[in-house]
């Protein structure tokens, strides 16, 4: 009568898939975290169906009670169109360790199959061009609130904003002409120069009031 194996005592992260992101023309590393939530010492071994493709460090060892071990899985350089990529799998095998261990390899060789616990993970390969296509297809998030975007898209509001901007340009042009006249009058002193200065100041103050009003209206429309 066959005996069922025990459920895996180790908590494995990630639990079912190891992801490798290209380019695969250089070493690509993924990581496993093995956590032992029990009060007993656990020994582990990491196996793969493609041992020539990977370097695992450490590939075996012990996880102390309430402790964890980080395992690095390094995929060696390979062709991106390799046909066997979809067949790569890993298995984390574990068992409770005796109090004293003299020979780890002999421990695994003599282990009762019923005492072994294992978890299987499949390998997932992400091509570099797939990552680029996905990132380029996603539009960058807008920093403008949706309500403002909708308001700015309204035809009436766009026409109003255009009219306000044209008015601002006209007033700026007039202000430039007034400044030119003021500079000319200033370079040619006359009895009426003080009166001209007063008129110029009044005109500049009036222009400032108009510009402030227009900008207030503009901001009011945007913030609606």
TrEMBL record:
Keywords: Coiled coil, Membrane, Transmembrane, Transmembrane helix. InterPro entries: Ig-like_fold (IPR013783), MSP_dom (IPR000535), PapD-like_sf (IPR008962), VAP (IPR016763). It is a single-pass type IV membrane protein. Residues 132-141 have a biased composition (Low complexity). It comes from the Eukaryota. The keyword Membrane applies. It is found in: Endoplasmic reticulum membrane. Pfam families: Motile_Sperm. Residues 9-126 form the MSP domain. Residues 154-188 form a coiled coil. The chain crosses the membrane at residues 205-223. Residues 127-148 are annotated as: Disordered. Belongs to the VAMP-associated protein (VAP) (TC 9.B.17) family. PANTHER family: AT11025P-RELATED, VESICLE-ASSOCIATED MEMBRANE PROTEIN-ASSOCIATED PROTEIN. This is MSP domain-containing protein. It comes from Clavelina lepadiformis.
């Amino acid at each position: 009568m066959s005996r069922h194996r025990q459920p895996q005592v180790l908590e494995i992260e990630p639990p079912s898939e190891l992801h490798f992101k290209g380019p695969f023309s250089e070493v690509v590393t993924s990581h496993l975290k093995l956590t032992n939530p029990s009060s007993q010492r656990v020994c582990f071994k990491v196996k793969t169906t493609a041992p020539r493709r990977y370097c695992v460090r450490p590939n075996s060892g012990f996880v102390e009670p309430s402790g964890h071990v980080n395992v690095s899985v390094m995929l060696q350089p390979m062709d991106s169109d390799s046909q066997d990529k979809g067949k790569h799998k890993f298995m984390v095998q574990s068992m409770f360790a005796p109090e004293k261990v003299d020979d780890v390899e002999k421990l695994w060789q003599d282990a009762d199959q019923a005492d072994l616990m294992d978890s299987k993970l499949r390998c997932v390969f992400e091509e570099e061009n797939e990552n680029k296509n996905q990132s380029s297809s996603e539009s960058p998030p807008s920093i403008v609130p949706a309500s403002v975007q909708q308001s700015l898209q309204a035809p009436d509001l766009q026409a109003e904003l255009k009219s306000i901007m044209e008015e601002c340009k006209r007033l700026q042009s007039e202000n430039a002409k007034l400044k030119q006249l003021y500079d000319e009058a200033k370079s040619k002193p006359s009895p009426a120069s003080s009166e001209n200065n007063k008129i110029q100041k009044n005109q500049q103050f009036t222009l400032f009031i108009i510009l402030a009003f227009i900008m207030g209206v503009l901001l009011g429309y945007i913030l609606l």
